[in-house]
Design goal:
The complex is a heterodimer of chains A (about 250) and B (about 250). Chain A is of the alpha+beta class and about 250 residues long. Helix content of chain A is about 30%, strand content about 20%. In chain A, the strands form four sheets. Chain A has a four-stranded mixed beta sheet, with helices on one face. The termini of chain B are far apart. Classes of the chains: A alpha+beta (about 250), B mainly alpha (about 250).
């Protein structure tokens, strides 16, 4: 009997290890098809094309299992309203509400527009510098990602990000942020927000590739990044950005 | 053995304990700690691999084209730049199991108005309607085919080329004015639009026909032409397709 039990255990061990090893090998093979040193990702945002429909926010939440409550965002859209008396209001648009009219009278508005925001994937990321356990880092292709197994949820990085791009995931209790949909871009698909944007306000591309929509965008427009004085060197650039945008 | 331990000087015994602890620590670091904790590069590799292995939920429009004919209809219409998944939701699961998992087919009115309801923050020229004035309660799909959206009566004249102006005018207070009330359009303009141009009102008195204090037309805003605006033509300050001053 004892010997039979031992044999059973040995059998399960052998089978599970071969299966597990096979899976690991498969994962490794997948990473081998993709060469991160040949890519360097960036995004362009044409502010005056954004219609504020909030499809990108929804798609991001679907694709990346971001909680649906309106406090957790990997990407979000801000409505800037500049009134004639100079007062600037910034609201995070709620994608569930269809008409966005609020208390501000149309006649009082001087300018109003939408600005989509997401992690700027800084070349010089302040969030990476402050992590006490090394859970967040910049990959070779320029994307900042978080290891949610290493993260201890201390929130330093959330404080350090000048763009407010990180949040604490309420279920995992770890920091979470936009990864440019890393699992999609490494398979050649665009990030989910770019895929669904109905007005092509977001342009995703590889800064290392020659001709691309992003290259054209960078050539054609006068560009700006958010908070350039912080020297974070964002890889997300904006065209037609209003001076009031912070 | 017991004799040896009792014979051993006390300080040597303590040293032995320290030595054993040291050896245990070395063994712990060498064999028990996972490689990712010891080597930052291995940690990065593992995290990148888990990030890459996450599930894709948005499949991309090319996948849809292989089964659905609507794709060909869509690619020539105004919605040509829209991804299928902008309206139909995540489709990766549907593409893998087309019979059991069905995509969203939104037919409600408030789905279309998420993009097409008038909103002062939206870019001018983007096709917008006032949902409470534009055939209220009627489903959008009963007049417009979402895969090839067009006004039910195809515009014959100015709108065919000047769609942006027409759409802007459609939500302005000048909506009831025909283009030809203000512009004289030579027939040659339709053949060689850049060589023969339509006229623009060249006198202040033209706008004054409706808007001067002497005007007999009621229900328009009135100004005294003698004191208002001095040497300027009206349209140099007020955009006539979207006159913003009441």
């Amino acid at each position: 009997m004892e010997r039979r039990k031992f044999g059973k255990k040995l059998f399960t061990l052998v089978v599970s290890s071969t299966v597990f090893g096979g899976l690991l090998k498969k994962a490794n093979a997948q990473t081998k098809d993709y060469d991160p040193s040949k890519h360097y990702y960036g995004m362009g945002i044409q502010t005056n094309k954004c219609i504020g429909c909030g499809k990108c926010v929804e798609a991001c939440k679907d694709e990346n299992n971001v909680p649906k409550e309106p406090f957790f965002f990997r990407t979000w859209v801000e409505r800037y309203t500049i009134k004639k008396d100079g007062e600037v209001t910034v609201q995070n648009i709620d994608s569930r509400i269809t008409t966005h009219r609020d208390n501000i009278f149309e006649k009082e508005i001087l300018r109003s527009f939408f600005v989509p925001k997401l992690c700027n994937q800084c070349d010089n990321p302040p969030c990476v510098q402050v992590c006490p356990v090394g859970a967040t880092f910049k990959t070779e292709d320029g994307v900042i990602i978080v290891d949610d197994e290493r993260c201890i949820g201390c929130r330093y990085c959330i404080q350090a990000c000048p763009y407010g791009a990180r949040y604490l995931h309420p279920e995992k209790q770890t920091a979470d942020k936009c990864t440019f949909c890393y699992h999609r871009i490494t398979k050649g698909l665009p990030p989910a927000c770019v895929e669904v944007c109905p007005s092509q306000a977001r342009i995703f591309g590889d800064l290392k590739s020659g001709a691309s929509p992003l290259g054209r965008f960078k050539r054609l427009f006068k560009l700006h990044v958010l908070k350039p004085f912080l020297n974070t060197e964002p890889k997300v650039s904006y065209s037609d950005l209003d001076g009031e945008v912070r | 053995m017991k004799k040896f331990l009792t014979k051993l000087p006390e300080q040597a015994g303590r040293l032995l304990i320290v030595f054993i602890v040291f050896i245990a620590l070395v063994l712990l670091v060498r064999f028990l700690l996972p490689a990712s904790l010891k080597d930052h590069n291995i940690h990065i590799q593992n995290t990148v691999a888990t990030e890459m292995s996450r599930q894709v939920r948005y499949a991309g429009s090319e996948v849809c084209a292989s089964c659905h004919d609507e794709y060909n209809l869509k690619k020539n219409g105004y919605h040509k730049n829209l991804s299928c998944e902008t309206c139909h939701g995540t489709l990766k699961e549907h593409s893998e199991n087309p019979t059991e998992i069905k995509p969203l087919v939104p037919r409600q009115r408030d789905f279309c108005t998420r993009c097409h309801a008038f909103d002062p923050s939206r870019p001018t020229g983007f096709p917008q309607i006032n949902p409470s004035a534009h055939n209220p309660m009627k489903a959008c799909v009963s007049c417009h085919n979402p895969h090839d959206p067009k006004p039910p009566n195809v515009p014959q004249e100015c709108q065919a080329c000047h769609a942006e102006i027409a759409r802007t005018k459609a939500i302005s207070s000048h909506v009831m004015l025909e283009c030809t009330i203000c512009h004289e359009v030579p027939t040659q303009h339709k053949v060689a639009p850049r060589n023969v141009k339509a006229s623009i009102p060249a006198e202040r008195e033209f706008c004054g026909k409706c808007h001067s204090t002497q005007s007999i037309i009621k229900e328009t805003s009135k100004v005294d032409l003698a004191t208002h605006g001095e040497k300027y033509l009206c349209w140099q300050c007020h955009y006539p397709h979207m006159p913003e001053v009441e």
